[in-house]
Amino acid sequence: MEDNLITISSYTDIFEAEMAKGFLEDSGFEVFLQNERILSLYPSMAGDMYMIELQVFADAEQEAKTLLEDLDDSYLCTNILRQENALLEGHFQLTSGNHSNQYIEKIRVLQNPAATHVLCNRLAKRLQDYDFDTVIGPAYGAIVLAFDLARILEKSFVFTQRKDGQMVFRNGFDLSQVKKAVIIEDIVSTGGSVQEVIKCALDRGIEVVAIGLMVDRSGGKLDFGLPVESLLTLDIPFWAPEDCELCKDGIKLSKPGSSDKLS
Ligand SMILES: [Zn+2]
């Protein structure tokens, strides 16, 4: 039997390998992972020489390969959000002040560092060809993403935070070597925070070369005047509080994560 197994894809990350396996199994394929156990015991061995190999039976090779090509960034990101129970339905006030019937509880993704790392790896692949020296993320959620991304791409990392309502670089960072940067944000709806970080960078003479997003929930309508790399683009409706049908129906309003950006 073993002789009939063909490797169709290789991974250094166990979480990503498991996700690909589940994706193919959901479509009825029999899937095997090789080296998974040894790499779960010794993750530092993962690399070009030693990877988790995803295998299927030879007669399913072509079909499984074709299907695996569909496992793109948006599928992966959606799956991770679902798996971590981060896609919520109800009546929510967004950071921008607008209301919506859907909310992405991003903190639940960060709660799983392995899942977060998979997303950062994907974002890294999309940003690696840009010319920059530093990754900037606004506090708090994007700090984790920006830090991991900077580590993967071997760049430096800084973060911004709001101080007295003003977006500023965290005190103490040495910005003298920061010339070109990418800005990372977890989720944007109006893009307000990202605009503030862009201004913050420009004020310090730092050129911003691209924006990296985990989720763009504006449906791709935002224009920062810069290239945007987004893992997942969703068109989630939102509206001003005075136009909110859910408010009119007296449905209780949640303000998830609203303390995030206040400090
Ligand atoms: Zn409302």
Notable traits:
263 residues; alpha/beta; Rossmann fold; 2 domains; 3-stranded antiparallel beta sheet; 9 helices; globular; binds zinc ion
- What is the straight-line distance between the termini? 60 Å
Classify the helix fraction into a percent range. 25-40%
**Mean model confidence by pLDDT:** 90
* Helix and strand run: EHEHEHHEEHHEHEEEHEEEH
How would you classify the helix and strand content by structural class? alpha/beta
Radius of gyration: 21 Å
Briefly note the CATH topology name of the largest domain.
Rossmann fold
Q: How are the strands of the biggest sheet laid out side by side? A: 8-7-6-9-10-11
Q: What does the largest sheet look like?
A: 6 strands, mixed
Number of strands: 12
- The CATH class assignment of the largest domain is Alpha Beta
> What hetero molecules are bound to the protein chains?
zinc ion
Shape: globular
What's the architecture of the largest domain, going by CATH?
3-Layer(aba) Sandwich
Strand content: 25-35%
Number of domains: 2
Instruction: List the uncertain runs.
Output: none
Number of helices: 9
Structure commentary:
The protein has helices spanning 14-26, 36-41, 61-68, 73-83, 107-110, 113-127, 141-153, 192-203, 245-248; strands at 5-11, 32-34, 52-57, 87-93, 99-104, 134-138, 156-163, 166-169, 180-188, 207-216, 228-233, 238-239. The protein is α/β, with parallel strands linked by helices. The protein folds into two domains: 2-71; 86-248, Rossmann fold. Helix 6 (113-127) packs across helix 7. It is globular and about 65 Å long. The mean pLDDT is 90.
